[in-house]
Design brief:
alpha/beta, about 15% strand, 3 helices, protein transport, single chain, Nucleotidyltransferase, domain 5, about 130 residues, membrane, cell membrane
């Protein structure tokens, strides 16, 4: 007779908490990957007259050895030209050069940007004392 008795429904909350934590971690990881140019491992030069620009669409990293990388992928000047032409002339480019980068390498990257038709070029700096 006990088999036929109607039992009260129970809601198990532990699996629901597990799913909520999984979703929280998922959204945190996706948000961290959406932040552009995180973790550039270079020491930027400081500037007292720098101004904040709108967020760039392409961040070109230039290290002290003259290596160029975009989105953590090393490339040559010709490959950079192709990438910038592909993105279009309205692309905003920020060059994040290391403090010890040669000015000749910086000028070469700026020339490549201009050859690709990009006119909105910025140079990343840090605040003095930072």
């Amino acid at each position: 007779m006990r088999y036929l008795e109607r039992r009260k429904a129970r809601i198990e909350i532990v699996p629901m908490i597990d799913i909520m934590f999984f979703l929280l971690v998922f959204f945190i990881m996706v948000t961290l990957n959406m932040i552009p140019a995180t973790g550039i491992g270079s020491r930027l030069p400081s500037s007292a007259s720098a101004e904040r620009l709108e967020s760039p669409q392409v961040v070109v990293s230039l290290d002290a050895a003259g290596m160029i990388s975009v989105d953590r992928q090393d490339m040559t000047l010709d490959e950079l030209t192709a990438v910038l032409r592909e993105r279009g002339t309205e692309t905003r480019v920020v060059i994040a050069g290391a403090e010890a980068a040669a000015i000749g390498d910086l000028v070469a990257v700026m020339d490549v940007c201009r050859l690709a038709g990009v006119t909105r070029i910025g140079i990343a700096t840090r605040e003095p004392g930072a």
